[in-house]
Amino acid sequence: MKHELIIEVRGMTCDHCERTVARALQSAPGVEAVLEVSHAGAFARITTRPEATPASIESAVARAGYQARVRADKQAPGVPAVISRRGGEVDLAIVGGGSAGFAAAIKAAELGARVAMAEGGTLGGTCVNVGCVPSKTLIRAAEARHRRVHHGFKGISATDGRPDWATVRAQKDELVLELRQGKYWDVLRSYESVTLFEQRAEIASGHGVRLADGRTLTAGKILVSTGASPWAAPIPGLAEVGYLDNVTAMALERLPESLIVIGASAVGLELAQMFARLGVKVTVLEALPRVVPGEDPDIGNAVGDYLREEGLEVHAGVQIEQVSRAGGRYTVSFGDAGQTRAARAEQLLVATGRRANTKGFGLETVGVTLGKKGELVVNEFLQTANPDIYAAGDVIGDPMFVYVAAYGGSLAAENALTGNVRRYDLTALPKVTFTDPAVASVGFTEDQARAQGIEPLVSKLPLEHVPRSLAARDTRGFVKLVADAATRKIVGAHILAAEAGEMITEPALAIRFGLTIEDLTSSFHPYLTLSEGIKLAAQTFTKDVTRLSCCAA
User: Fold this and answer.
1) Would you name the residues annotated as active-site residues?
2) Is domain 238-352 annotated with CATH 3.40.250.10?
3) CATH number attached to the domain at 90-229+356-418
4) Tens digits of per-residue pLDDT, 211-236?
């Protein structure tokens, strides 16, 4: 009996790729016919005999140098989905009104579903209210002050002055209110099929959501998107003395004279540098061997050095032993290279991670599974152990990025309403740390590539060879690319630059679509842009760029 399958194929860029994939599919055991291959749509349609398996089909395409995944449905991309109505007052009940919840509500409304959303806190979730938006605008404000004094241009006067923190903080709050109104409240009002309940909700069953006022909504499916909250490591004395987290730190009434930051991943480092640039004496303590420990080691070592040059006291590879407070000052004792040392400051900020918000939502009684850090465990369709309950966003654990939450919310809503059609796929996921210089990365490091059985080719281009950096008088950082020696496809990129976040999309697309070193070097890159550094880094695999003229191909 013939069976038709849809296959997602990544890495195709042209007609030649389509023909290569078609030949690969024809070689797979049990493939009857290749009906269609589309590089633009990134899919293929085939008919198969009973002996064909998803693993054999995907392996055949992988041997040709492309990534393939057999879809769970028979529906080609772009074909409208059909909602499976299951009764209840609504088709989808969403618990949580942050980025994942909103993306889910919008997708469900676009599919024609009846949607209820319950949010007991501030609408919009972490990013717009207490995360990305307020932190990044404060970081820019601190950078503006820093640049008044620290720049590389002769003839431009450098003056300093005490920042007006109250005004800076108020402007931040105004931006938060503006975006919360425009991107959440106003958006919600434009979808008539979505009803918002401004109250806390609990999961009563696989088809029931109990609101704080005692009413229970019945739903065909439920989506949990309750987010995450700051988490503090179990350090002796910490709970007794109290501390700041990222939320309370950005809401301080006045700038402290000094600050200790425990934790040097993205949140800790961003806020540490921000406060330092606003005139606060900052000490950073990190347990792992270097700052931004999840990044390429070269990145972490360089960022630590740049922060020390700015005047921050940075200690990595330390063991926090005790926290105490007396006379309005904190003391943090820590072990460093076998010696016990102490840091003292007026305020203490703890940025040691975040944990999913899963307590108090009735999840203990509805047949879902929680992970080691309290996160909701889901399958590749974002479905929990209870088949009628889905989850998306920070509540399912790392990576906790707002764009991942939005992607997951939309995907989970579609799967809940139309059957498990789309797989959750974080291939080629870029990430950014908004320090200065900023950090951006995607794909494998050199060591990670080897762990995956890939023999890596590595190029590293210091920004002193990028004309834009020379013109801006800021050559801090580098571009590091990792390629597969066998296929010459890009498999990783690690950037340290003033605007690294604006540069990372090109390498992310290169990884997602299987582009090679030569694809990057043969593409046009405007002169005197930082993105030209991507091309120069790709050229560095085979050439000495110091011996090339400007814009040399």
Assistant:
1) 12, 14, 17, 66, 127, 132, 550-551
2) no
3) 3.50.50.60
4) 999 999 999 999 999 999 999 999 99
